[in-house]
Design goal:
seven-stranded parallel sheet, alpha/beta, DNA-binding transcriptional regulator LsrR, DeoR family, carbohydrate binding, 2 domains, 15 helices
């Protein structure tokens, strides 16, 4: 654990130095980009000098990852990319990126000024919660952006919203509805209830959104536990769907795949999601490359948190 924290600290110092010495950014610009104070940027630069990292060039084993982050940011047209190193011998596409998100949020929340954060669901976000240090953010509200399933997994939308709130000392609001309405239920009448009108109205006031993405396979929690039937998954594939974001299925170009499920989905719309100022997509794994690219084309993320295995595939296939 101590070694991981040391590596994380040196990684941060390396990134600061890259922006300062190579990209020519000011300390204030770096602080804004990384979500830290100018003082912390200055301290990182001084630490780099003391460690002998800053000479004619920056010497650090983390620089290839910083270069990859910049390349992927430009390729996908994003504001920021964070790449976690994966264990290639025992590959886990949840834990490293979850831990990277936890580290980023712990820093960013100090200066971001967020009042409302929307969250989706998934094991990756559960991993992030497990790695987060406790903070006190009494003015922050965590808002679930999608309905849930009847299965009580901790990474269901209900568990994720309450889990983030507990770690951050924040309040939370749950969308206490199924992610898909049963056939025959009047959607307008259902969502017209006051409890849902109030919750759905908060989507337009979100400062940030934390998202996951999935493909259409048994590895997807939505496909394995949320879809009404396997027939729906087969139909989605036939219609060109390659994955989902917040329960909305996309084709390879990021367009909605319309079928009866889309009209029955309870949660934030892609149009509302795209308008949120900061959108952090947390996703890794070779099976998610296509849906990550589709989400970028649709403008559903401003920041990507992924691992180096996935980043290499995204860059190779660009």
């Amino acid at each position: 654990m101590l070694k991981e924290k040391e590596d994380e600290a040196i990684s941060f110092v390396s990134e600061v130095c890259w922006h300062y010495y190579v990209n020519g950014m000011t300390q204030a610009e770096i602080g804004k980009s990384l979500g830290v104070t100018r003082l912390r940027v200055n301290q990182a630069i001084q630490k780099a000098k003391a460690l002998g990292m800053v000479k004619v060039q920056i010497e650090s084993p983390f620089l290839p990852r910083v270069e990859m982050q910049n390349a992927l940011r430009e390729t996908l047209g994003l504001e920021q990319v964070l790449i976690a190193p994966a264990n290639r011998d025992n590959y886990d596409f949840h834990t490293p990126v979850g831990a990277a998100l936890a580290s980023f949020l712990s820093r960013h929340l100090e200066t971001a000024g967020w009042r409302r954060i929307g969250v989706s669901w998934g094991m990756t976000l559960q991993c992030a919660i497990a790695h987060m240090a406790r903070q006190e953010c009494p003015d922050l509200e965590i808002i679930s952006m999608i309905g849930g399933t009847t299965k009580g997994a901790v990474f269901n939308s209900f568990g994720i919203a309450s889990g983030f709130a507990e770690r951050l000392g924040a309040s939370y609001s749950l969308l206490a509805a199924p992610i898909f309405l049963s056939e025959g239920i009047d959607r307008e009448a259902f969502l017209g209830q006051e409890i849902f009108r109030e919750h759905l109205g908060k989507f337009g006031t979100l400062d940030a959104a934390i998202l996951t993405a999935s493909d259409i396979s048994a590895r997807s929690y939505l496909v394995s536990s949320g879809l009404p039937s396997q027939a729906h998954a087969e139909q989605l594939v036939e219609l060109g769907a390659i994955g989902d974001v917040v329960g909305r299925f996309l084709d390879a170009e990021g367009r909605n795949v319309s079928n009866d499920l889309d009209d029955r989905t309870i949660g934030i719309t892609l149009e509302t999601l795209a308008a949120i100022p900061e959108k952090i997509l947390v996703a890794a794994g070779p099976h998610k490359v296509n849906v990550i690219r589709a989400a970028a084309k649709r403008g559903l993320m401003s920041m990507l948190v992924t691992d180096d295995v996935t980043a290499e595939l995204l860059l190779r296939d660009a």
